[in-house]
Structure formats: structure tokens, C-alpha cells
Design brief:
222 residues, alpha/beta, six-stranded mixed sheet, 4 helices, 24 strands, globular
Length: 222
């Protein structure tokens, strides 16, 4: 049984904890977040410690870390935590739920793959990627680092997703399309043409809106 620390104390961490506590492969020791976000000493009856205390509390050889934070700031906040944990010398665990169907061999560090997700053969998934329940990554698709693929999303064959991109619930990217880094693809949007970095697509027809993803992220919390 692998001992783990979960980074986070919000909705994502809550969901991840509920799944992992029922998984006989793991034992959750505690949660960890930065000091300014600690409002209570415990979360789901487990201790909350400061991330900066991990090195003094745990033996790096005996414990792994699961990053279970959200997609805010175009996934940059989660990316920064991921990088800090690596600098501290801890291994970051990729958690694949037993009910996920993962046939690809090339899965990066620190990924979360939720129940019902499907990752076909010959996919390549980068580091620190979240693939939520019932999302599909079809054959030969490539997902960059720090991406968030929400529930029900479909990546068709040979799709490429750039780093730090967010795909909303039920979004679809059709065959061989390349989505740029730091994109926001809204719920239900269908992307039929390649996109550039920092673009936002919200409607089902995939219409581009007239401001970039940095502006949209600041206004709406992505």
C-alpha cells in the first residue's frame, strides 16, 4: 500500500480523496496546502499541513504526493505547485482509477484519470494532466502538460492539445486538429480547425470570441 499526501483542500481534493480512500492501493496520510489557505486544522478528518513542511514531516522515500488542485489561472497555479513538489524531491503520483480504461503506455507524472475515462492505445499524455470521468482520448492523440480535460470531452484520433489548455464538459476536438497552448474550450464546443495559443472557443459551433484567454481567465476565474 502506497502512502500519499493530497495537495489541496477544495472540491477537486475532496473528490480525489473520496475515490482514493476506497482504493486498497493507497493510504492518504494528510492534506497539504499553503499557509494562507489553511482555515481549519483538518479536512475530512485528516490533518492539513503546510506544503513547505512536507520535507520535515515525511521521508521522501516512503511517500508520494498527489496534486489535486483546480484549473484556475489557465492551470498555472497547479503547474507551479507541481514544480515546487518536484524541487522538494518528492515523487508525484499518477492516480488512475481502477474503473478508468487506460490502454496507452505513455502517461506522464502527476496525472489524475477518473472513473470511466478512456485513453486509447498510442496516446501520449503529458505531466500533471487531469482527465475527468467519461472523457475519451482516442488513438494517437497527444495531450500537453498541465491540461484539464473535463467530463465527457472527446479527443478524436491524432488530436494534439497544447500545454495548459482547458477543455470544458462535453467538448469535442475532431480528427487531426491541433489545439494551441493556453486555450479555453468551453462546454459543448466542437473544434474542427486548428487553433492558436491563448484563444477561447465557447459556442457549439466553436466560434472564436473577440478577446484572448488571458483576459477571459482574469474575468471568469479560469
Amino acid at each position: 500500500m502506497q502512502s500519499v499526501v493530497i495537495i489541496g483542500n477544495s472540491i477537486t481534493a475532496e473528490v480525489v480523496y473520496d475515490l482514493i480512500k476506497k482504493d486498497e492501493r493507497y493510504k492518504v496520510e494528510c492534506f497539504a496546502i499553503d499557509k494562507q489557505y489553511i482555515n481549519e486544522k483538518r479536512f475530512h478528518d485528516l490533518e492539513i499541513i503546510e506544503i513547505d513542511r512536507l520535507t520535515s514531516v515525511f521521508d521522501k522515500s516512503n511517500i508520494k504526493v498527489i496534486v489535486a488542485t483546480g484549473y484556475s489561472n489557465l492551470n498555472k497555479n497547479r503547474e507551479l505547485i507541481f514544480q515546487r513538489i518536484i524541487k522538494y524531491g518528492f515523487q508525484i503520483e499518477t492516480y488512475i482509477h481502477p474503473d478508468a480504461k487506460v490502454y496507452a503506455k505513455n502517461i506522464g507524472n502527476g496525472c489524475l484519470i477518473f472513473p470511466g475515462a478512456i485513453v486509447d492505445p498510442f496516446c501520449k499524455i503529458g505531466n500533471n494532466v487531469v482527465i475527468w470521468s467519461n472523457a475519451i482520448c482516442a488513438h494517437h492523440s497527444v495531450v500537453g502538460n498541465n491540461c484539464w480535460i473535463a467530463s465527457g470531452s472527446i479527443l478524436s484520433g491524432e488530436v494534439k492539445i497544447g500545454h495548459n489548455t482547458f477543455l470544458g464538459v462535453g467538448s469535442t476536438v475532431v480528427n487531426k486538429v491541433e489545439v494551441g497552448s493556453y486555450n479555453i474550450i468551453g462546454a459543448g464546443a466542437t473544434i474542427t480547425k486548428c487553433t492558436n495559443a491563448y484563444e477561447v472557443y465557447l459556442t457549439k459551433s466553436g466560434e472564436k470570441i473577440p478577446f484572448n484567454s488571458k483576459e477571459y481567465s482574469k474575468a471568469y476565474g479560469y
